[in-house]
Specification:
By secondary structure, the chain is an alpha/beta fold. Helix content is 30%, strand content 28%. It has helices at residues 36-48, 63-69, 87-102, 120-136, 183-192, 206-216, 218-227, 240-245, 268-273, 332-340; strands spanning 2-6, 55-59, 78-81, 107-112, 116-117, 140-145, 156-166, 169-178, 195-205, 251-256, 260-261, 280-282, 284-288, 294-297, 303-307, 312-317, 320-325. A 5-stranded mixed barrel has the order 6-9-7-8-10. Helix 1 (36-48) crosses helix 4 (120-136), helix 3 (87-102) packs across helix 6 (206-216) and helix 3 (87-102) packs across helix 7 (218-227). It is globular and about 60 Å long. This is Mannose-1-phosphate guanylyltransferase.
Length: 349
Amino acid sequence: MIPVILAGGKGERFWPLSRRSRPKQFLSLDGSGISLLQATANRLLAVAGGWEGLWVVTNAQIADGIKEQLPQLPEKNILIEPEGRDTAPAVAWAAIEIERREGPEAVVGFFPADHWIGDEEAYGKTLAAASQLATEKPAIVTLGIEPTEPSTGYGYIEQAEAVAPYQGLNAYRVSRFTEKPDRAKAEEFIATGRYTWNSGMFIFRAGVVIEELKTHAPEIFEPLAQKGVAAYADLPKKSIDYALMEKTQLAYVIPAAFGWDDLGDWNALERLLKGDRTNVELANHIGLDTQGAILYASSDDERIVTIGLEDIVIVRDRNVTLIVKKDRTQDIKQVLKQLENDPRFSSEL
């Protein structure tokens, strides 16, 4: 498999730690010193057969940072978008380039740069199953995460009929993709036993997805095929889910249970790190009657002192302190829009 890491996102809900020049995928959120991007690359090297087989799609603003983070990655394997146009153009451009270089039978996988994987052995087994399915069938395979709760934060994939197991794992045709539901609908989905979360990971042969893009997303594929990166300014902003996965008849899903989190906002640290502790503390913290808090400081010189607080996130990074209730972290993006419109705060973005 040729793994392609999608590394153009901003990760705005991890602001102020995540900024334009230091997006979420460049961060180490667990105190290990290894960034999310580096961790993603490291676990994909085995299926890539080394650095020569690994690709990255990113944007011009952070391309130099990608090279610093992954110095062993060949520059010819870094596709630099002049501007972000969501995932459909990124997938289409990479598929075109890989088919040109490796041929239409090359099996390609697309992986977000900023996810957490718990069981790498099970992850590798799932990728092997997906690769086999994509090799044997004209298939666009997605990895579906077995739900642990009726989450309203993820899209859902409904399974249709089963196909033969691959590497001992069940696989199904996809009945439909559903956008983020309300809680009642999410509970209904889970009760059926036929739904998984959409992980945003896809595996297919380059030639298969190119033919599907020609059919279902010609407004993206044709300009890229004719002009390459020069077409970007005129491309529509579309996700690969909307542009292709919701339309294709070649979608398959393999339900996966390898421990996964998309690290959507600061609350993810609690899911991964809290255990039986009162608070999640990635900072020098002194607290009195404080519980259920997530505390992060980017420097060991910073001190955070709290008294009588519950269910709150406090992040200290350089010249910014964020204090937000845990149930309002999704609203960080609204605050960033305010900062964008105020020239006094441009350096904080």
